[in-house]
Amino acid sequence: MNGTMSNANVLIVDDERNMCELIETDLRLRGINSRWCLSAADAVEALHQENFDVVLTDVKMPGTTGLQLCQQFTESRPDVPVIVMTAFGTLETAITAMRAGAYDFITKPIEMDLLAITLRRAIEHRQLSEQVRLLNASSDENGAFGEMIGKSPAMVKLYEQLQRVAQSDAAVLICGESGTGKELVARSIHANSRRSEKPFVAVNCGALSETLLESELFGHVKGAFTDARSERRGLFLEADGGTLLLDEMGEMPMPMQVKLLRTLEERSVRPVGSDKDIPFDVRVLTATNRDLETSVAEGRFREDLFYRINVIGIQLPPLRARGTDTLRLAEHFLKQFARSERKSVDGFADGVAEKLLAYSWPGNIRELRNVIERAVALTRYDKITIEDLPEKISNFSARTLFLGGLDPSELVTMEEIERRYINHVLEAVGGNQTQAARILGLDRKTIYRKLKQDA
Question: I want to staple 188 with a disulfide (CB 3.0 to 4.6 A). Which of 144, 146, 183, 218 is the partner?
Fold first, then answer.
């Protein structure tokens, strides 16, 4: 039995005892707890006494009708979805029910399988709404480390690692897909270290040519090259006493890798055009979205430099592996952009949270931030609606690993199953062959060989 359903509690309201008992019996067989009442007054009292995930009420009842009861419930307990049962399955009845605040409606005679599906959707909706409410009510919006946001198991594990790393002066290699927050992690390490009062300096190694990167890192003397009209200290010396982040480390040209290795080993820099070495005291952090172990194996990154910068390795989880952290981050960005846009947007309409959780977020936190900024700018309401989301998210359908059906003609070979699963794991880890190898229990070279055969 689905865990969502087995823990559910349903309140049935109908003036016909036989109908109540019939539904109760069917739900019990499906592992769903329920309680029934024969009048609206009893239902109101029951809702005050007990916690229910969904209310299932008949429309036609003496005294207070089901629609009136629905309206009363949605005003007093808007967190509990109401499903209306009616023998008059007309569009007019459905519209009236929805206007009264009903989550859904179902017609009599009731098809029990259809009722179970409708209840499951309502229960999942309620539980997700409760998660969002708890996130909104949380006074501690940030996570447990610096300015990072998130309380998922993956992030709690990361915080514990960062707490230990921050107390050390060892070199750290921060790995993760694009948009996972590698620079924020580096800044958090610096802010929690003994160097926090000294400079934090970051440079994107992939954004500069080899010549410019050398001058940027090591500095230059006046006249070292055509445009060198004055002396420049360089980032190693600018960060003296503090922390230097070398971002996009996997993009560094091979000749620069040689010069960087020498600099890290000797703890001194030689500015371009100078014959003197200048010592520095800097903690070096590096970051990359590349699989550097594979780059080493393929001869695109120096092995000796890799071990020099990878004394401690940190792997950042992608957003798709962080569960409801997606909603925490979405709420954070919503408040941020609502303030900057001066718009009174204060939450998400029904269905938006489900869409945000279902989407795979290949661009990670950076993509989520962009989506929320766009939604705040476009929305005409006080809450973000599904229509405010990009079509790729509003229409997203999660892919599954298809291995073949029961028809013998659909069945595939073990080799094909292996190929599909390797590609499935690679997609899940953002193409990182080293990480995929650990999950699959295969040597990285074996994966590389199989992928080459498949190409």
Answer: 146
